[in-house]
Amino acid sequence: MDVSIASDSDQQLWDDIIFSSIEGTLFHTWKWLKIMEKHNRKKIFSRQYQGILYPLIVREKDEIIGLMPVFFYNTPFLKMACSPSFSVENLYLGPVVKKNDKNKTHSKQYLFLQFQKAIDDFLKNTLKSNFISIHSSPGMSDPRPFIWSGYKVEPEFTYIIDLSPGEKILWGNINKSTRNAINKLERKGVSVDNGSKEDIEIIYNLLFRRERIYATKEFLLEIFQNFFPENLNFLIARKDGYPLTGIITIFYKNKVSIWIGSPKITSTEVSPNYIVYWEGIRWACNNNFKYFEIIGASDYSLFTFKNKFNGVIIPYYTMKWYSPFNRFIISLYHGLYPRLPV
Prior knowledge:
This protein is an alpha+beta fold. The chain has helices at about 10-20, 30-40, 105-125, 145-150, 165-175, 175-185, 200-210, 215-225, 275-285, 305, 325-335; strands spanning about 1-5, 40-45, 45-50, 50-60, 65-75, 80-85, 95, 130-135, 150-160, 190-195, 230-240, 240-250, 255-260, 290-295, 310-320. Strand 2 (about 40-45) and strand 3 form a beta hairpin.
């Protein structure tokens, strides 16, 4: 298999494959990737590094097998290949296999194995990466080729709610205490409406004060300019016109996902995040989407809140590989900066 780097002239081809593939997400689309390239950054020893986007296309002869967006960081200590990049609020990205309904299951598994080997060879031998980090999308179900290539593979989780039963049944499926909390919020005059550009700053500042966001405000504004209202929406909880909390949702294909928001509110009253999440589910139902995703089901500290909406756990995977020398560098880095992720 051959690996090439896509150019701007391949945008339509790239996006068509992303849209048709099980693994393809809004984060994989060409425009979103280019915005990530502009705003991503990684801080190492007080210096900022920006990753360069490599949108990889894997072909078997003239047939495209799959795609893989990678961000490459060339630092004095590490040559890092990452998918997704840092500081852009993406929990997953990773490989995308082109849809081919003619191939049988065993053929698909073999092609994915060869696809992964081609990507691995490019990252290690062409880019000379000595650290690779890949977070797959929930559509990728087979991490074995990465395990066989020496990656450390760990499961992550997201919540998916099937919207087909309809609003009434979905309401009944929610935890009873959560329904009571939502009713209480409504009685107290808390309402939820669709936000606007001005509400980006509100959500951003709430998250920034709680150290819950790493992206810049400029990144969020550029995402807004390019994806609102076709693929992005805001839901803001207010009382007496005053904004309390909010979420940014993204929608692509048949799914709505909570992307950013719902900062914890310091208050003795009921958290308005309950009503924001429910209104997000209602909005998705009323706009004929099939699924609603609550991203971030791996965080134990948020389990008691996110679990109450009756979502089904869907796995995805993180795959990491270190060169032998850089295993030592990483351990040294963690020794000096134990709280900083790598």
